[in-house]
Design a protein that fits this description.
Blueprint: E1 3-7, H1 9-16, H2 23-34, E2 38-43, H3 44-71, E3 74-77, H4 81-89, H5 95-106, E4 111-113, E5 126-128, H6 130-145
Parallel strand pairs: 1-2, 1-4, 2-3, 4-5
Helix pairs in contact: 1-2, 1-3, 2-6, 4-5
Length: 147
């Protein structure tokens, strides 16, 4: 399958903070990335936001270690002035969501995994929750392993 997916901060936090109700799906997604069945991408903005939230709970050192481990599974995409300008000119209410969308679109990624589905009123790339992504892709991945 090897889909290229943008992963939002809430999904990363679901994994690293082991958030109840969301951890299992996030863990499955990152396991697929570990097994190289999908490719995960994000931005430095997302990782900075994740660190900011994690450090309040885990402290600086543990949070940095978690992000170092995460970096083995997630590639960091650049944000250039073109992406910033498109996000600023867009109809996205949340500037960060605009940046994520235009980054994913410019890099020709399959879609974005987020829990903020309502913020993405677009149709040209796939926007899914981690639960939806796992449901849709579990069977596909299982079938591809059996071929």
């Amino acid at each position: 399958m090897n889909k290229k997916i943008f992963v939002d901060s809430d999904i990363i936090l679901d994994l690293l903070a082991k958030r109840p109700s969301f951890y299992d799906d996030a863990a499955k997604i990152f396991t697929w990335a570990y097994k190289k069945e999908i490719e995960l991408y994000s931005t430095a903005v997302v990782l900075a936001n994740v660190f900011y939230i994690l450090r309040k709970v885990n402290g600086n050192d543990k949070s940095k270690e978690q992000l170092k481990d995460l970096r083995l599974l997630v590639k960091v995409l650049p944000i250039d002035e073109n992406i910033v300008d498109m996000a600023l000119s867009s109809k996205f209410n949340d500037f960060e969501d605009g940046i994520q969308y235009y980054t994913a679109k410019e890099q020709k990624l399959f879609g974005i995994i987020t829990r903020n589905l309502k913020n993405y009123k677009i149709k040209d790339i796939v926007i899914q929750s981690s639960n939806e992504f796992v449901k849709v892709n579990s069977e596909l991945l299982e079938n591809s392993r059996n071929v």
